[in-house]
Amino acid sequence: DSGVTQTPKHLITATGQRVTLRCSPRSGDLSVYWYQQSLDQGLQFLIQYYNGEERAKGNILERFSAQQFPDLHSELNLSSLELGDSALYFCASSVAQGNYGYTFGSGTRLTVV
Amino acid sequence: AQSVAQPEDQVNVAEGNPLTVKCTYSVSGNPYLFWYVQYPNRGLQFLLKYITGDNLVKGSYGFEAEFNKSQTSFHLKKPSALVSDSALYFCAVRDGGNDMRFGAGTRLTVKP
User: Fold this and answer.
1) What are the counts of helices (DSSP H) followed by strands (DSSP E) for chain B?
2) Which of A4, A42, A105 lies closest to B105 in CB terms?
3) Smallest CA–CA separation between B38 and chain A, in Å?
4) Which of A11, A61, B33, B48 matches a 20 to 30 Å C-alpha distance to B24?
5) Residues of B at the A interface (Cβ-Cβ below 8 Å)?
6) What is the pLDDT of residues A35-47, one digit of tens each?
7) Is the dihedral of CA B14, B19, B24, B29 positive or negative?
8) Tell me: the pLDDT tens digits for A80-112?
9) Reduced to 3 states, what is the DSSP secondary structure of residue A72?
10) What CATH number is associated with residue B56?
């Protein structure tokens, strides 16, 4: 157990639907990062939050959004889902910005049918 | 912006032989370099990192990595590979306050 909790572990939904992925960071970590891992595109950075505020954006689609709540857990919302959104979505957390490494959750496998 | 390249999609080695997984990086400032390993259906696990100091960094499970500033490389090495080392390996770079950027990953297969 890495200390980063992601739910659900698996999610199957239809095209056009909306889903919410949840992440609880490791105790004491203020930063949360979301990554998408698909077979043909490796690990793509989506978005970062630090202590409730958005800090960095990567290749996140406009159909996707995220937020970090006062208790530091984060949610990634994916809407108008397409078949190509099927992937593993990882959350990672770290203490702060700088030279710290990340601790990853075990991921949510999203399948869009 | 920082970036990382892993030139090999796949590395195959025999058990007991030394292994090397290659990584090169590009950053504008001082690099913070990391290696992670991913086993099937699992998240990424931290192996080791280079921040400053000795160019040879030792990490988990007998892995080590050599930082070479002139070649902008951070290759992962292990003197004697195990079948259980078979996994997907990611090199990553963090440039100070920026987010971490990962390479495309290298699949290591160790054959008995």
Assistant:
1) 0, 12
2) A42
3) 10
4) A61
5) 32, 34, 36, 41-46, 49, 51, 90, 94, 96-105
6) 999 876 678 889 9
7) positive
8) 999 999 999 999 999 876 667 889 999 999 999
9) coil
10) 2.60.40.10
| pLDDT > 90 fraction of chain B, expressed in percent and rounded | 75
**Cβ contact B89:B35 at 8 Å:** yes
Q: Which residues of A57-76 are buried (b: 16+ CB within 10 A; e: fewer)?
A: eeebeeebebebeeebebbb
d(CA A86, CA B68): 38
What is the number of structural domains in chain B? 1
Q: Both tokens of residue B73? A: 């490389």
- Domain housing B26: 3-111
Beta strands in B15-112 (DSSP E): 19-21, 24-26, 32-38, 44-50, 56-58, 64-68, 73-78, 87-94, 100-102, 106-111
A101 touches chain B (CB under 8 A): yes
